[in-house]
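Methods — Computational structure assignment.
A single polypeptide chain was analysed. Its primary sequence is given first, followed by the predicted tertiary structure written as structure tokens.
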Amino acid sequence: MGRILVVEDNNSYRETIEEALRIAGHQVNGSSNPVAGFEIFAKQKYDLVISDLVMKEFDGIRFLTTIKNIDPTVNTMILTANASDETEKDSIDANIDYYFDKSKSIPVIINYVNALLERKKESRLQVIELESVAEGIIMNLRSHDVIKDGKSIPLTRREFQILKLFLENKYITLSRRDIMDSVWGNPVEDIDERVIDLHIRNLRAKLKIVSLITVRGYGYKWNE
């Protein structure tokens, strides 16, 4: 299913939401404040971030706006016990996907989450090409051709899958474990993580790219 981050300072409500999401098959992490939420979000890719509206540090709309600046592809949801037309309008203006009063039942909220993530999955399946303008790269996901500055570059299956992962997740830091789980399948236990470094070196050499950078002590990120 999806990978979801829940940021909510009401511990009891957060734990209830997290448990319901896990029962629905999602991978869930949680935080009681937005500052810690940023730290968690920076460590891995999420499909959805759910936030309380009113928090001590700053409000959920500001938090999710910053999250979407980091990763424009992430889905977002506000949950609040203090719903108003004004804050709902603010959330719409901030391109937040859903805004719900906490009086809405947990099962209904979970259904909305499932529908949102399913639509995202279907939209990804419709993508035929991925592109890096800065690097002059076009990937055809149907034919598996990779074009660099107008020239076809042969890649191995693993190299193709790793490049696809980074072009789908630009500006997101991916750990070696994230890459292994996405490309080799989840979970992976018996592959040396240094294999990832070898594939990255090969991609850099074959495509002559500088956008795929090393994040020391963690993994890699595509910046352009």
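Note: The domain at 129-222 is CATH 1.10.10.10 (Arc Repressor Mutant, subunit A).
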